[in-house]
Amino acid sequence: MMMSGFFRFGVWQNFFRAWKRGYSGNLEGEGFTLGGVYVIGAERQGVLLEHREKEFGDKVSLPAVLEAAEKIKPQAS
């Protein structure tokens, strides 16, 4: 995304949302790495949830994470 990420409207919306809520991260690091969340089930269940950031500040839905986590079946002994 590099510099084009700073010109996206959604990035600025996410920034101001975090700022209003008092987020005060250290702002260290390269700043160009997008993150993601995976919920992976036991054995052959595989990936139950995959969320990749499309722009800076793109958050995963907490209810979706909880729903996916509830689908994890315990391993057979």
Descriptive report:
- 27% of the residues lie in helices and 14% in strands.
- The protein has 77 residues and is α+β, with helices and mostly antiparallel strands.
- It has a domain at 35-76.
- A two-stranded antiparallel sheet has the order 1-2.
- The relative contact order is 0.21.
- The model has no long low-confidence stretch (mean pLDDT 81).
Structure keywords:
single chain, 77 residues, alpha+beta, two-stranded antiparallel sheet, 14% strand
Radius of gyration: 16 Å
Output mean pLDDT.
81
User: What's the number of helices?
Assistant: 2
Strand content: 5-15%
Structural class: alpha+beta
Order of helices and strands: HEEH
Largest sheet: 2 strands, antiparallel
Share of helical residues = 25-40%
Number of strands: 2
GO molecular function: antioxidant activity
Protein name: Peroxiredoxin-like 2A
Family: Belongs to the peroxiredoxin-like PRXL2 family. PRXL2A subfamily.
Subcellular location: Cytoplasm
